[in-house]
Write the structure tokens for this entry.
Amino acid sequence: MAKSIIVGDRFGDESEVFVIYIDALIRFGGGPQSRRGVALFKDRSKDAPDLTERLIEVEG
């Protein structure tokens, strides 16, 4: 079943809710918004034993 999550009025307003629903994150390049999403993901995952298995970042 699909789930729609509508948060905020501007691009990026959904990030805090989005990271609740993901177990892994891959970031290729991007700007401030994508880096903010990674920061939120890292904060949410701070008690995880090995984040390197679930977070990949590549500068573009």
